[in-house]
Amino acid sequence: MTQTTPEAPARRQRAQVKVRTLRTDRWWLVPLVTFLGLSSFLVYGVWAIIDTSNFVEPYIAPFAAPCLTTQEVCEGARLFGWAPVGDWYALPPGLLILGLPGGFRLTCYYYRKSYYRSFWLSPAACAVQEPHGKYTGETRFPLIIQNIHRYFFYFAVVIGAILTYDAVLAVVHKPLGLGSWILVLNAVLILGYTFGCHSCRHITAGRLNHFSRHPLRYRAWTFVSKLNAKHQPLAWASMFSVMGADLYVRLVAKGIIAFPYA
């Protein structure tokens, strides 16, 4: 008896929707809101890089912390007085910092889904026609670079620790201002988003076959899994909290908001 082998599905072909959409609801609302939200983060990030009002004791703007050069704009914003870049670096200090958490978010599994659908319409929504006829996944340049997300995680942990350190310094400072608690809330949300990352979940216990033999790692994995279940809301909350905290510090530095009542 001759056996027939079923044909392998075409890997490079998208599911074809013959009409513009089969949906009757407002399917376009989520991609639109996502596009506007992510665009606001990009626009603000560019402005924060250009703006030099990033420090006023005891507050350090999150988008410029820590400042690693000996430039005058970094005075008082360096971590333990550390300035490894020296005075040869003439570009805005934000360029040195935003690349690390920015790269972490850019390659994040949730953010990939968000901007693939909202910016590239790939796909915009289920049962909606898309402009792309082929799909190669993340196996080719430039999307294959997304695989470095696991390495950005370690840098993101360092940045989260620095933001926490800055928040603690603001809290112990006298007089205590509203900005101190804003920085604390931002640090908590940043750490929640960072440690809820899929890569962190894999690191804690992703390769274990027997949880009973590794109780500490199992507890860590359980905790990270709870954060991972909230990864999407934490991604949005931390994105807006870091923008809000950064803007708040800059407004205080510009004198728009008065300290110590800030």
TrEMBL record:
The chain crosses the membrane at residues 27-50, 88-111, 151-172, 178-197. It comes from the Bacteria. Keywords: Membrane, Transmembrane, Transmembrane helix. This is Succinate dehydrogenase.
